[in-house]
């Protein structure tokens, strides 16, 4: 197990509860959940996280957290002992997705945050078998509503304008994990296969019957994969 702290970065409109299973299980190393709520760009968020992070740490990022993790690697690779990228992407936003984000921001600013969540949540975020899970759905809504419309706007803008990180993958020479759900509709399996292939020391894990929110849908499997990563020599 890594002797250094584990820094976990949440997905969009999610908080430390999305890592509940991992925080409980990773008792062998101190765990910190980074704050991705205060900046309007990936670069700003990375700067803020680094300012508050320990000198060296293992880095875990899911979805938006993975995008910020890639920026942290570019800025401070010497501080990262291990890197886990979960259900994420190295690609910039597509034009149609950028347009959708602006439409969603406009809707959320009229008080319809919950509506936007429900419209996108079931088809995009969860595996088929989990789309009727009241526990999962309620947790996702509770986390997002707790963060509120201002955070939704800031995070949407950061994701809209995110950099292209494809070229960064080949530079990631620490022990790494690339993990996703087989039913991830936002960041599909083929992206993760390509990411793992591009990274010199990456293990690839694909979880069956799991969607985009792997840490919540399959907490034990994700924790086991992270444990294997952290036991590797940095």
Number of domains: 1
- Fraction in helix: 40-55%
CATH homologous superfamily classification: Alpha/Beta hydrolase fold, catalytic domain
Quick check: average pLDDT? 95
Determine the CATH topology: Rossmann fold
> How many strands appear in the DSSP assignment?
6
- CATH structural architecture: 3-Layer(aba) Sandwich
Distance between the termini: 11 Å
Strand portion, in percent? Answer: 5-15%
Biggest sheet character:
6 strands, parallel
Spans of at least 5 consecutive residues whose pLDDT stays below 50 are none
Strand line-up in the sheet with most strands: 2-1-3-4-5-6
Coarse morphology:
globular
Return the string of H and E elements.
EHEHEHEHHHHEHEHH
Counted by DSSP, the helix tally is 10
Question: What can you tell me about this protein's structure?
Answer:
The structure is a single chain. With 234 residues, this protein is an alpha/beta fold. The protein has one domain: Rossmann fold (3-Layer(aba) Sandwich), CATH 3.40.50.1820. Helices cover 47% and strands 14% of the residues. The chain has 10 helices and 6 strands, in the order E-H-E-H-E-H-E-H-H-H-H-E-H-E-H-H. It has a 6-stranded parallel beta sheet with strand order 2-1-3-4-5-6, sandwiched between helices. The mean pLDDT is 95.
């Amino acid at each position: 197990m890594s002797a250094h702290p584990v820094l976990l970065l949440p997905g969009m409109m999610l908080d430390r509860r999305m890592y509940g299973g991992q925080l409980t299980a990773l008792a062998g190393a101190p765990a910190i959940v980074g704050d991705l709520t205060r900046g309007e760009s990936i670069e700003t968020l990375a700067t803020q996280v680094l300012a508050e992070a320990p000198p060296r740490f293992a880095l875990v990022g899911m979805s938006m957290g993975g995008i910020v993790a890639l920026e942290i690697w570019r800025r401070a690779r010497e501080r990262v002992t291990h890197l886990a990228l979960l259900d994420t992407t190295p690609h910039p936003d597509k034009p149609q997705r950028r347009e959708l984000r602006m439409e969603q921001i406009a809707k959320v600013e009229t008080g319809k945050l919950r509506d936007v969540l429900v419209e996108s949540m079931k088809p995009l975020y969860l595996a088929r078998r989990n789309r009727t899970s009241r526990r999962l759905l309620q947790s996702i809504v509770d986390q997002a509503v707790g963060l509120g419309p201002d955070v939704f706007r800031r995070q949407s803008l950061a994701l809209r304008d995110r950099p292209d990180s494809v070229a960064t993958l080949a530079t990631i020479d620490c022990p790494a994990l690339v993990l996703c759900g087989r039913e991830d509709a936002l960041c599909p399996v083929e992206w993760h296969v390509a990411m793992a292939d591009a990274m010199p020391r990456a293990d690839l894990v694909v979880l069956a019957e799991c969607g985009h929110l792997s840490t919540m849908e399959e907490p034990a499997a994700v924790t086991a994969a992270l444990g294997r990563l952290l036991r590797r020599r940095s």
